[in-house]
Design a protein that fits this description.
476 residues, alpha/beta, 5-stranded mixed sheet, two-stranded antiparallel ribbon
Amino acid sequence: MILAVLVLLIMSYFSIFHQLDKQPMQLWDESSYALNAQEMLERKNPFEMYLLGEPELYNTKPPFAIWCMAISIHFIGLNELGARLPAALFALFAVVLLFYISYRYTQNGFYALFPPLILLSSTGFISEHIARTGDTDSILAFWILAQCVAIFLYTTLAEGNQKYLLIAAICFTMGCFTKGIAGFSAIPGIIAWLIYTQKLRSIFTQREFYVGVTIFIIIVPGYYLFRNYLTPGYLDTVYRFEVGGRLWQQEFLNPEKRPFYYYYQSMIMNERLITWVFILPVSIIVLLRSAKNNLQQLGMLFLFGLISVSVILALSSTKLFWHDAPLYPLIAGVIGISFLLLIKKIESHQLLLLVIGITCWPYYTVVYNNIKNPLSSHFPSFLKNIRTNKYSTDSLVVINADPNFPLHFYAKQQTLSGKYLEIKHPMSESLIPNMLIITEKYAREVDVNKRFILDTLAQQDECRLYRIIALREDNN
């Protein structure tokens, strides 16, 4: 058991945490969430979110993920690791939970490794927007997995099961407190499971059910109402972007209408679940044909949850690739449990070796991607290089004409370290001779060269540092 846990932690490190801060901050969600968290710390207001000094009405989700990020940034600092650690930790929690529930019904540490190792080798889950960036989806995926596990224990255990009903209610609450209505994705499947196990009626006789409902009402609807009090118009925005946005197509997010099978297509075409997605149908057949016992029933519950989340995602018109995050732990549960059922039935070491061999390639792919993926931007390293050299205390201006939250993230980071970095539009009238300016896009380089006579001071990849010499005559 101890050796199996050690193997799990080592493989989790290389899959989830190794070089977690290698990539610079990503556009949109990750960098805007980090700015939300930093402003929350500065304002000491945990309930109302701000972005660039204004009340936040783009990110309408409840604040649990931002709270986690704020705590991480408070202790680690406003940097890539501080922003990403909460998502990575919740990915680890999902891995550990799969191991725990598998071990509970196998009593074999190495057999119990199969479901979590499938999750650790799921390229879509261990990637941007989910486990390795500062987003909400990894946290949501954990809460949905925890909902399923808690409900399974409630319906399976003969004694002391009432506490798991309360735990399930808390997991529902935290799922919604992380990403709004997405926290309910597994509810249809769980209701179907309660009907299947003939436990639906009994939950209404349990005191824990009503305690859980009360907790949910106080925390989730209570937060939405309080946030609307703090930020008038918040509920209208929630309806347009969170509720309506999932059911209706938001053309600014995905202009083309995507088919109902989009997520599974992406798992194949974009290699988000390469290898495992082909094994999934066989695993479902194994589950359905296996003798009924606790392990088989655990796999069946994961299947109920998987079908529920898949249908909800398919019915949504707004489809973004990272919305598939809750599918991966459930798929890992279905495939992993089916392997365990086969191994127990056949008792073949050859099958055991085959399963280990199948796991090696996708796991290697995940670790290779973590190490070898090229940098998406060289701006942070360029900024670090010029600050390390003779421009360590100079006031710098980044030229930018587009919404770019990573630049604001690094500007805030510079401010917190006592240095000056400001972001200005290329046509800003406040740009004057002797200013030091940075461009990090060819378009911005063209903009400033058209407007100014420049002295090139440093360059690296797409980044340039200039000193403004004078305004060009044709711009007078």
